Structure formats: C-alpha cells, structure tokens
DNA sequence: CTGAAAGCGCTAACAT
DNA sequence: ATGTTAGCGCTTTCAG
C-alpha cells in the first residue's frame, strides 16, 4: 500500500496538517520542520493521492478539450491536433492536465453541463465544430469557464479565439504589391468557406486601398480541393488578360493551381507567381516550393491555454479574443519584380 | 450550491446508500424506490460529484496517453493523432476519459511513477517514443497497467501493440505477384528505419518463397524523404535491367519515385508499376493515384483502448500483442499484367 | 509555528 | 429491500 499523509506525519513526528502545509508551501512552517517532513516523504516515497487532493480542493486541475474526432481526423484536420499540442503545453506548464472528448454538437450541451455540475474539469476548451445556440445559453447561464476555438458563425456570448484570416489576406496582398506584382488573381472557396472568404476580403481591402482594379474574372470561386484549384486556374488562363500572380485560398487549391500552370507550360515564378495560405501539406514539397502566409496554430493552442487558465482563476473575466498574427514565408513561387 | 447525494436522499425519503445504489444499478432496489430517487434527482438537477466518486471508488476512470507532442507534431505525425482518436472512442464508449500528456523519454519514468502512485489515472497508453529501459523496469516492478504503442526496439517486459509491417510487406509482394508482376524493386530507408526494414523483410520473404531472384541493384536504400525517393529511383533506372514495379517504403519516397519516373517519361502503370505503404499524405492525390498497402491506425487506437481497459480490469493479464491487419487498396499505379 | 478536527461527497461492507 | 456507518486521503479553519 502506498504511503499516505498520515505515514509521513508519523515518521516526521508532526501532524498531517503540517505535512499538507509543507507540500503546499505555507510560509508559516520552520525550515527545520520542512526538512524533517521532506526527508520523511523521500524515505516513504510519498506521492500525494491526487484523487483525495482533488476532492478536498474541489478542483481537478484539469481542462477538457471538446471536439469532433471523426475517423480520419488526424489526417484531414492536423491543425486541430497542432492546436491541441500547443494547448497541452500551455496547460502542462502550469500543472494542468488536458483531457480530450469526442463530441457531436447535439451531445455537447448535456455533456458540458454534466462536466460542470460534476466538477470533472475546471474549464473547457471547445472546438467551434461542436457549438450551438443551446450550448451558448447553457454556458452563459452557468458561467462555465470556457474558450471556443474558432469564431462562432452566429451571435453568441462565447469567449472565442481565432486566426485573423482577413489580416492574413491583407498581408498577402501587401507582400505581393511590395514585390512589384501588379495584377493579382484570387482563387478560392465559395461563400460557405468562411476562411477563404475572410482571406479574400483582406486581399481586396488592400487592393482597394491602393486603387488596384481587379477584373471580375481574376476572382474564381469553387470547391476547396485540388481538382477545383486546377479548374479555376484553367478558367483564369482562358482569358487573355492574365494576372501576374495567383493567390490560392488554401494548399489544396494551390496544388491544383500549380498542376494547371505546369500543364500550360507556365514557369513559376517567371511567368506567374503563386502564393497560398497555410504551410500544409503541400507548400513545402511542391516544385517550386510555395510562398505562403502561414498561421501559427500551435501558438493558437498556447493562447487558448493561457486564456482558459485565466478564466479559471478569474471567472468573471469577460473577453472575446481575435488573435494570432500570421507570418509570411517567402519561397520560390514568388520573386521580386520591382528591381 | 449544487445538490449532493444527501439532498437527493432527503427529498426521496431514503438513505444515501440507496441513492448510490440506484445510480450504480444495484439489482436489489425496488422499482418504486428507483422511481422516487430518479424523480428527486431530476427535480434537484443532481449530478454526482465525480471528484468525490473517484475518491471513494479509488479510481478515476481515466486513461493517460503519454507521448512526445513537439511543435509540428500535428503535421508531421498525423498517425499518432489518428490512433488517439480511435483510443478516445474505445475509452469513451466505456465511460473512460482520455487525457494527454507531452513527455520526453527522460521525464517519463518519474511522471509515470507519479501518476501511478497518485492514482491520477487508472492506466496509461504510452507511445514508443517515450519508452526507455528505466521505464520498463518501473512498469514491471510496479505492475502499472499500460500499453505501449509501437514495438520497443529493445528487449522489454512492456505490453505493446504495433502494426504488422512485415505482413504488410508480404501482402504487397503477394498482391504484385498475383497481378503478374515478375520483377519487383524496393526503395526504402536505411536499417535505422525499422518500419521500412520490416516491410522489406516481408517482401523478400514472399519472393524467396516463390524463388524469385532479386538483383542487388533492385534494392535501394536511402533517407525516407521525397528527395531520396527521387534519387533512388534514378539509380534504379540507371541500370538497363529494369524491374516492372517499384515498391516504395513510404509515401514520401513514393512521391520522389513518381517524380523521377515522370522525368524519365515513363508511364505509370504501363511502363512501370508503383506501390507504396500507408495512404498518407500523397497516395490519393498523386497522378496517377497510388496503389497502397494501408494500415488502419484508427483501428489500432481502438485496439489499444480495448487492451488497456482489459488490463485495468485484470491487472495480471499478461499479453504482448502484435496486430492490426493491413489492407490493400488497388489504384491506378498498378495493373493486372497476367491477363 | 503547529496541531486537532471538521469536512469534501460518495461508496460499500455490514446490519437489519 | 433498505439503512447505518466507516472510511477514502487531503485541506483548511481555528485554537493554542
């Protein structure tokens, strides 16, 4: 049987209260006693029982990550796991443990309520894929410490965190203009693809600022996959009025775009520049390697961890965040044309 | 303040023991009482305090997943997260919660010991990337319920679970021979890459069985990346004695292989067949789509979950497992030559 | 600076 | 079929 606080107390010749104080760093204990207790703990190889501690403290030092974890999630959504890694690090650093729970939006309200009432976790990080109006009501009413990953697509009281895709679009456009590109095209998802839409909005806002006119056909919309990227690029090339660079809403579209350009014997970046968002999964492997506006999802996880810990400490903290700065990685698919 | 078991007992006019029995499905309670208690629970919106329950039960219904979660892990090792998804599902189904903890091999022994002594979790799933001889000793001595994901590269007492890469190699070779291929080449990693080595061993064992001779230069070894795949393929093509199919140890090598074949104007599958292992990340996207021997890592997670739950129930269960059957997905990069 | 003792909320053995 | 009660191991208040 493992040693308990009583054993330590007995061996050290003090009370259990004193042992507890030593463990928790109370100031009112003499160095002498501290040493005694420490020695006793070592000797007995004492490890405090966390279950008892959690119970007594009424806190588990545990944060729950709620998300949809379908089969193939590891491959189709590595970003989520990257966020999770960051989250774990931020929590682990502060002695908190991260737990993961697969969930549908339908199950979420009941589960969240249960977790909260049963004190299973001190706080929750909720992926936007499982939120709902019902969850919003619950979370607000019970004042449940939480952070939502991803901007909710409906008005809500959630405290959330997201990537600034519009800013990413702005950075892309600014970068290209500064490098002497004058005619930008954008191929991306339809309006349902909010990420693509935000990136495009950022691009357009910069172009407008600089009074750059964008011909209608320089904006192509389609599905967010390779095939669609291929088709959209062909559409673009069909019109004699060519852009000098194509901005692809994501890596899959970029893959199709590069294929189409190659088929048309166009050299990248000499005949056409290519820029995309997100450094995954093709941008580093494609020939030529692509210039990207990258988003640091790992850092997003860290931020989420810090936020939820804050929320746990000060539950009345009321924030709605929008953050993580994108960064540009210039590679071979663009060049400096201004020189 | 949330309702406790006492409140429920009082309202239902029974003892707390009875309420507890109702919750835990004891058979010796009359339907009448059950109904009363249930009603009282609903009325008070009672949720049992898990911290108290864990404490009383001396179990947390929680399994810890220990792994190295470096920055970029989500992108570089999606398989691990896919396993994790399967694991979560297997555990969640049985009412267990999965927690995740980043860890170095150096930290692992102390942490594992701590988890075990402190009863923080009922069992652990340990990724092979964090195991060590020290951990093996500890786990054996303390009889800690665990499953290691991945075959240890040293003699140990661990209970582990892995993909049968040798079998995957055998399946690849059998598949190709059955489809009329007669001269197989293999390009893969050096001996350090155990996965590649096992796959090759499987291939060779089948070829030996059928008395197929493999010319030395049909086996190429290099790094496990695209560039190396490219180079190894060029080496292969350099010799006039060409194989009719190239088996690539993994997707990255396959990517380089396909690039090299294209550069040499070789048509796939007409001039040369290509087969690879693992359906990620290029095999479904490359032109042509690749025939693969796939490994169901999600299922591996499920198996791991079932195993660890078994171990938790019956700690003296002594097994060393080797499992998850590979499966073949035939696509465009191979054809049937026997007709 | 230290100790006694009262919980924390639930479970389970035992008694009825 | 149901109730009594003794823990589970630690924290924390209050008294000394």
Question: What do you see in this structure?
Answer:
The structure is a homodimer of 339-residue chains. By secondary structure, chain A is an alpha/beta fold. The first copy, chain A, folds into 2 domains: 62-163 and 298-324, Response regulator (Rossmann fold, 3-Layer(aba) Sandwich); 165-295, Response regulator (Rossmann fold). Helices cover 45% and strands 14% of the residues of chain A. In chain A, the strands form 2 sheets. A 6-stranded mixed β-sheet of chain A has the order 7-6-8-9-10-11, with helices on both faces. In chain A, α8 links the parallel β3 and β4. In chain A, α7 packs parallel to α8 (133-142). The longest helix of chain A is centred in the C-terminal third of the chain and has 17 residues, at 297-313. In chain A, 48% of the residues are buried. Chains A and B meet through α4, α5, α6, β2 and α7 of A and α4, α5, α6, β2 and α7 of B. β2 (97-102) of chain A pairs antiparallel with β2 of chain B, so a sheet runs across the interface. The first copy, chain A, binds a DNA duplex (16 and 16 nucleotides) through α2 and α4.
């Amino acid at each position: 049987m493992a040693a308990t606080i009583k054993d330590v107390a007995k061996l050290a010749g003090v009370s259990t209260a004193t042992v507890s104080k030593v463990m928790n760093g109370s100031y009112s204990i003499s160095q002498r006693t501290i040493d005694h207790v420490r020695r006793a703990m070592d000797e007995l190889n004492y490890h405090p029982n966390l279950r008892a501690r959690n119970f007594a403290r009424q806190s588990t030092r545990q944060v729950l990550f709620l998300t949809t974890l379908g089969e193939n999630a590891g491959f189709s959504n590595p970003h989520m796991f990257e966020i999770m890694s960051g989250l774990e690090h931020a929590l682990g650093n502060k002695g908190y443990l991260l737990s993961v729970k697969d969930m549908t939006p339908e199950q979420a309200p009941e589960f969240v309520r249960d977790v909260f009432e049963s004190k299973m976790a001190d706080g929750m990080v909720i992926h936007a894929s499982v939120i709902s109006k019902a969850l919003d009501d619950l979370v607000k009413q019970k004042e449940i410490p939480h952070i939502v990953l991803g901007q909710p697509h409906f008005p809500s009281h959630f405290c959330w965190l997201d990537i600034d895709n519009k800013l990413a679009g702005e950075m892309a456009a600014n970068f290209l203009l500064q490098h002497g590109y004058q005619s930008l095209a954008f191929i991306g998802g339809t309006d349902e693809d909010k990420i693509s839409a935000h990136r495009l909005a950022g691009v357009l806002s910069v172009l407008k600022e600089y009074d750059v006119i964008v011909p209608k056909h320089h904006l192509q919309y389609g599905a967010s996959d390779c095939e669609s990227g291929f088709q959209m690029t062909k559409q673009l090339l069909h019109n004699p009025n060519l852009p000098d660079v194509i901005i692809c809403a994501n890596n899959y579209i970029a893959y199709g775009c590069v294929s189409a350009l190659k088929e048309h014997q166009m050299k990248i970046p000499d005949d056409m520049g290519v820029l995309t968002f997100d450094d995954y999964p093709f941008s580093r492997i494609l020939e030529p390697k692509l210039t990207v506006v990258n988003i640091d999802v790992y850092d997003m996880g860290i931020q989420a961890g810090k936020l939820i810990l804050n929320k746990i400490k000060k539950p009345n903290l009321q924030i709605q965040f929008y953050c993580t700065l994108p960064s540009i990685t210039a590679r071979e698919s663009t060049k400096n044309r201004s020189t």
